[in-house]
Please model this.
Amino acid sequence: FDMFILAFVERLFRPTYRKDDFVLGKKLGEGAFGVVYRVSLAKKPSSKKDGDLVLKKATEYGAVEIWMNERVRRACANSCADFLYGFLETSPKKGAEYWLLWRFEGEATLSDLMLSKEFPYNVETMITGKVQDSPKGLERENRIIQTIMRQLLFALDGLHSTGIVHRDIKPQNIIFSEGSRTFKIIDLGAAADLRVGINYIPKEFLLDPRYAAPEQYIMSTQTPSAPSAPVATALSPVLWQMNLPDRFDIYSAGLIFLQMAFPALRTDSGLIQFNRQLKRCDYDLDAWRESVEPRAGLELRRGFELLDLDGGIGWELLTSMVRYKARQRTSAKAALAHPYFDREGLLVLSFMQ
Ligand code: ADP
Ligand code: MG
Model:
């Protein structure tokens, strides 16, 4: 109960915003459930920090997204983009819309960075803050990819420890924060908070099939329909243990790891083809490897070589994430303790603001 009072007081003293506060800038995204703009403040009263903001005007799912962002703000702020405020805006023309406001974290998502020819060296420059001049090669690329995976798993561990499953983990929903020089997760529109039963019934249609784990339902279909909130609070840790819903995100994160190692899988068509091949191999990555490696071109072989460094430790981690059965997949916390991360990653120079 104290938590609620604290949250309420915190909310009371945080600056609030209204529709007329914003000047719309560039459109950053448009989906079936909302439009996202870069915005600035029309006036800049001293109580409101000025600077760049991001505004999402969302449909009915905006309510869940506000809930999730408020929870993340209090429980694991560093995992996700810095959320400022969310409110319901009703107009005669557009009806009810949820408006959500974040700090503008940076220009590039992991998707933008991965699609560049410079990847992963472009990320190295952004993380370390300068162009490195050591010779290019597999070892160096592996160190960069390892650092990205560590940051992603760290953010996921924060969400999962809070009881939130994201369910739409993909490079487009991972933003590089220029302030902290780390990757953060965005877009909690499809997320589920199992501790309090919010968005408990999975909306399969929200899931991106390119990155979705084979199980279509986060919770087993035997789980009875959504219990009311108080019951869910008591039950859900048990349900969490039984169904391991967090492993859905782990599968998606594993696919991102794979895309970073194999440039051919970074395009939509490449990933879709891979998914088809993996399905034909009954989701057994080792079987997939056996089927493609003998006739692999230079680029594909290079990806395997990268994952085979240090006695195949990268491949080992990858195969522990991308598995058919959720309960055989590693957790974010266990993955962070994997020997793949024993080697030192990139030095992140973050500056206090
Ligand atoms: P949707 O996918 O539902 O359109 P997102 O929340 O993923 O909405 O946002 C769309 C795009 O807007 C992202 O892919 C990213 O490019 C950009 N974006 C979202 N939030 C931020 C933020 N806090 N800082 C910078 N860019 C952002
Ligand atoms: Mg998105």
